[in-house]
Protein 1
Amino acid sequence: MALYGAPVWVDALAARNKALLSRPQRVIAVRIIRGYRTVSWTAATLLASDPPRELQAEVLAEVYQFRSGLRASGERPSVDQVGRIRTLAQRDLIHRWKEDLRSPAAGSVTVDAIRPHLRRWVNRRHGVLTFRLSQVLTRHGCFGKYLHQIPRREVTPACQECGAPVDSARHTLEECAASEPQRRALVAVIGGDLSLSSVVRCMLGSERCWSAVTSYCEEVMALKEAAERERKAAAHAGSLRSRRPGRRRRRYALLHPPQ
């Protein structure tokens, strides 16, 4: 719907119009990747394989101009011709998107990990993003460093599992001693380089590697989330912020009373 009639209005796009297109695109992308609402537009759309709307509009305009040019000369474009032009325009889109990602305003860690593999990421035929996998890829999740930035959520950025001074997504993936058993299983599949760019490359290499990384994130992040819930429920956690009991939480509490 957002791109309806794109060949007509694409040349009239200005900064204000681009912002209007980007706003709902970010909301949709965050839903697609199952990410936190604080994830930037750049990181969310990149993970969702959803290029900027203005670039998508230009692809549609190029295909339309090709078809209208042939019709104006009395020819009828074949399906193969249109498909070839669409493929070339799509390749140009990926190239331009990659250039735009050279200096991202936000989400630089995610961009640096995926940008070298952008074409493979967009065209992959396996792998879905889960809530916990997205936390590791975006650094927005159940990490002490992230939660410490939110008032009354965590009193320290330290890792509650191993005592490291900073609990970040990188620490969780590469270093945390509490995750060593799960990490050994991951390394057995994808190798010893656990930098985010290397992990993304391995994930794109095979469905087995993608599943191994997803399993690691699911297991480790689930343990971190459980530990956080326990800290919030403990008597000494009065300074931590509790979530408001919304309608779904109240309904869940009624259906599943504490034993």
Protein 2
Amino acid sequence: MDSPDILPSSSNSNVTDSNESENLHPPKSREDFAELRDQTIENFQKPNLPNVNVPEKIIICLDLCYDNENSLYRLGDGTTFTSVKMLKRVLEFFIHSKHAINKHTQFALLMLKDEPCWLLGFTNNPKDIISVVDFLTPEESSTETFDFQKIFQILKHEIKIPEYSQGDCILPPPYVVRMIVLYGRSNCVPQIPQDDPYFIYLKKQFYFYIDILLSHEEDCSMYKCEEVYDALQDLDNGYSYVYEVSRNATKIHDCIAKLLAHPLQRPLQKNTDYSFGCRY
């Protein structure tokens, strides 16, 4: 028996359906087609990697330094958090959420103060890393620059990245490695040595990613917020997600939620679209 959905309808009904269809799907402009074409070309230019939710090994680089202890995040209920405490808060949300998505996700902790320090090796138990984070104490920033070369030296001894083979590109790797930098200083400019041999090696690895969340002061005229942000961009090899937020509690939670996306399953950051409903 024919379904009622496909039975012939009256001409008036056809007119109504047509009008509704045009309202729901307005004609695409040349600019829309050009944007789609550019995004398609960019995605084709990406390496041919398996689109699989393989386990992640995530290195959390948590900055424990602050510029102004009186600069606070404020929630809707009036609760306030210092910048370091807010980074700890969103980090806890991130860890629990990633573990819920894939219980094989592993986390390691690298602390950033005047010097970086590897505190905890990879574990898939959220309680292990969160308990360490809870006991970390913030301190006021006392330097004008931070040398990321020391981080690269630590990574060289602590991580192993799966090799990418062009012939086996359709086979998923056992895992991918991602470093998430939660940076909270607005007067301490990162130094990213582009000629560092291991950093050059990292930028060529298809199964290694660096994402960045910068939490900075509101009054950028009094701080070096723009210099810090521009310097952190040097960590991007073209596939990073980079976010910056001032003292906006809602936005920093939005940003950490966007970092939940799996590196093998997300588009380029500039092609992301978080709006609801049909775009065209």
Protein 3
Amino acid sequence: MESSNLESPPLFETVEINNGSESKLEDELFISAQQNISTHYGQSSVTNNISEDISKLNLDDDKTLETIPINSDAAGVDSLERAEAESGNQFIEITITEPQKIGDGMSAYMAYRVTTKTNMQIFKAKELSVLRRFSDFLGLHDKLTEKYLKIGRIIPPAPEKNVLGMTKIKMSNQVENGTGNGNDFVERRRAALERYLNRTAQHPVLVVDPDFREFLECDVELPKATNTSALSGAGVMRLFNKVGETMNKITYKMDETDPWFEDKLIHIETLETQLRKLHTNVENMVIYRRELANLTNGVSRSAAMLSACEDHNSLSKALSHLADTEEKVEALHLEQANTDFFILCELLKDYLGLLSAVRDAFHERTKLFQHWHHAQQMLAKKREAKTKFELACRSDKYELASNEVLEWEAKVERGQENFDKISKMIKMEMERFEKSRIRDFKAMFIKYLENHIEHQAQLVKYWENFLPAAESIA
């Protein structure tokens, strides 16, 4: 068996581990990269003395099998965690307002006013305001995903494109500044974009990312993110890659050695199933409340018409008062439906997307495990070839095989190192994710119950006001 004839099997994203012509530059690329993240909290500055910025790495290069930018500086990670813990006095609040339609016809698009208030010194001002279009948000998410997903970080998902809803906006001449027939669609998207930015800003690393800060600070129009278009070449390739990734997730099962990850995956699957059921039921509840409001409107109109044709004076007044009360109750039912949707339903939808992002981070770990496992298989083949050349006294081939064995031993070592690092990173990210999830759901429940109690109290007040009119019928 000739060592030069050894071919590696196809892996995720058709990454080649050994193409028989690794150069010195490629060997250098196999060295674990490190992040260069500099964060500012108050008067202190947390700076990792790191040799290479991940933004300069070509993460899409097929040859960079092990060029996964895992931060190997444990002290730097600890410093970042300490800075996060000490950043209690720091705040950043992002609001999105003034949705406006720009242009006409199919070339039209919606732009949003993004206002940021913060006391973080890394930003150039305490209050910032910029105008951003929807594709800018998708472009920001793509940049963050490209830089941080491969190291095991959980990237909050951006709102999904809605071609049908946006087409209606483009073809409508009545949607200006978020008003008109498309108001519901525009308001839902505005709220979703606001939640996306605030969720990203809660992450201690993503909030200081240069692309994220540029998005919030740069008071000029950003270059159009054409690759976010569903009909672009990049969009088509992204679709094919997504299909390939899905097939790999289904067909490849790694031999899990850490029970923590096995338990977490079961927990995530169970949580996702239950959240999906709850989200479906809450959506149905919103529909029912709106139907109830519509039926209440019918009762109000019928009572008003009956009042107009009623000869009995006190009964006519009571029916008129009933019509007014039912009209108020209708508005209250609509308000409750909006509360159910924007407070409860949308948060559940967000977390279904976040659980998908968690799965993506876990899948990156699986890919690294496959690369590492494949390197082990290739090392075994190289050692076997080396032994055969040694027994056959092929000194020329033996020397080459010995060098290849040393090369693959290094790759196996780096593969294990990268796998251990992404495992540690995911555990740290999951701890942060769980804390954030508990905090968000607690705030959601409190706000939802407060609104619900307020609505019920208002409903009781309406009927108490109607009671004297009913009792006065004589």
